[in-house]
Specification:
alpha/beta, 10 helices, 19% strand, binds beta-D-fucofuranose
Length: 315
C-alpha cells in the first residue's frame, strides 16, 4: 500500500511538472489581418511578419484581405473564434473598426494595430500602434520639392487607397507643406490605389488632360511613381527632366530610379515591422506596459545620399 502511495504521488508530481513545462512551451498563436498585396512595400511587410514569426517559433495565422475591409473584419472574427493569443491588424481604411474591436475585447484577445492607424472613439480598444508617421513623410516630400523647383510648378497627385491613413495624412501634410509656396499649385489629384498599374493609368489620363502643363508628380507610394514614370516615358517625355517625380516608401526599385535620375526623391517608410511587432506582443503578454504609439524613424533618399546605401537595401 505504501509502495502504491509513493508511486501515485510521484506520478501526480510528474504530471504536474509536465503540464507546467507544456504551459511554458505553449506556442504563441498570432492572427494577422493584412491589407492585401498591392505594392512592393506590402510584400516586404508580409515577408517580415512571416519570416520573423518562423524564426521565433510563433504560429502565425495569416490572412490576406485582398484590399477589402470586410475581408479583414471576417478574418479578425475568425481569429476570435479560434481563440488566438494576439491579433494584429494592418487596417486598410481608418474607420469602421469599433464593432469588431469590441468583439475582440469581449473575448479578452489583445489587438495590436500596425502600419496604418484606426479612428476609434475608445483608444482602449487596441493595445498600441506600430508604424510610420505619415504626416511627417508628406511634409518632408513637400519641403524637398519646394527647394528642388524653387517654389514653382504645377503638381499632379497620385493618391493611395481612399480612406486609408497614409492617403489621408500624406495628402494633408503635402498640401500644408506647399501652402507656404504660392507658386506651387496642385492642379489635379486622383487615386491609383497604391498600385503600379493604377499609377500608370491615372498618369496617362493626367497627361492627356493637362499635357505639358504638368511639372511635378507627387505619388503617395513608389509603385504608383514607377507606373507614372512609365507613362511619362511612353508619352515621349523625360522623367526627372521634363517632369519631377517624387514619392514615398523607399523600396529598392525606387532607389534605383533615383540613382538613374528618373525619380527625384523617395521618402522612406520602413515596412520591416516583424521584430518590433513580436517584441511588443511578448512584452504585453509578460505584463509590461508599452508605448501607445511607436513610430519608425524614416529618412529621405535623393540624388545626394542614395547611391551609397542602395547595395545594402533590404527591400
Ligand atoms: O506606402 C504603400 C502600401 O500603408 C504605409 O501601403 C503603407 C502603404 C505604403 O501599399 O506602398
Amino acid at each position: 500500500m505504501k509502495l502504491l502511495n509513493t508511486f501515485l504521488s510521484r506520478l501526480v508530481i510528474s504530471l504536474v511538472a509536465l503540464t507546467a513545462l507544456q504551459l511554458e512551451a505553449k506556442t504563441l498563436t498570432v492572427g494577422f489581418a493584412q491589407t492585401g498585396a498591392e505594392s512592393a512595400w506590402r510584400a516586404a511587410n508580409t515577408a517580415s511578419m512571416k519570416n520573423e514569426a518562423a524564426k521565433r517559433g510563433i504560429n502565425l495565422k495569416f490572412s490576406d484581405g485582398q484590399g477589402k475591409q470586410e475581408n479583414q473584419i471576417r478574418a479578425v472574427r475568425s481569429f476570435i473564434t479560434q481563440g488566438v493569443d494576439f491579433i494584429v491588424i494592418a487596417p486598410i481604411v481608418e474607420t469602421g473598426w469599433e464593432p469588431v474591436l469590441r468583439e475582440a475585447k469581449r473575448a479578452k484577445i489583445p489587438v495590436l494595430v500596425t502600419d496604418r492607424t484606426v479612428q476609434v472613439s475608445d483608444e482602449s480598444l487596441y493595445v498600441c500602434f506600430i508604424g510610420s508617421d505619415f504626416y511627417a513623410e508628406g511634409k518632408m516630400a513637400a519641403e524637398w520639392l519646394a527647394a528642388k523647383v524653387n517654389g514653382k510648378g504645377n503638381i499632379v497627385e497620385l493618391q493611395g487607397t481612399p480612406g486609408s491613413a497614409p492617403t489621408n495624412e500624406r495628402r494633408k501634410s503635402f498640401a500644408d507643406g506647399i501652402a507656404k509656396f504660392p507658386g506651387l499649385k496642385l492642379i489635379d489629384s486622383q487615386s491609383g490605389d497604391f498600385r503600379r498599374s493604377g499609377g500608370k493609368e491615372v498618369m496617362e489620363a493626367f497627361l492627356k488632360k493637362h499635357g505639358k502643363a504638368i511639372n511635378v508628380v507627387y505619388a503617395h507610394n513608389d509603385d504608383m511613381a514607377l507606373g507614372a514614370i512609365q507613362a511619362i516615358e511612353e508619352a515621349g517625355l523625360k522623367p526627372g527632366k521634363d517632369i519631377t517625380v517624387l514619392s514615398i516608401d523607399g523600396i529598392k526599385e525606387a532607389l534605383q530610379a533615383v540613382v538613374a535620375g528618373k525619380l527625384g526623391c523617395s521618402v522612406e517608410c520602413n515596412p520591416l515591422f516583424g521584430p518590433k511587432v513580436y517584441d511588443t506582443i511578448s512584452a504585453v503578454l509578460a505584463g509590461k506596459t508599452v508605448a501607445k504609439k511607436l513610430f519608425n524613424v524614416d529618412t529621405l533618399f535623393d540624388a545626394k545620399n542614395t547611391a551609397a546605401i542602395i547595395a545594402s537595401r533590404e527591400y
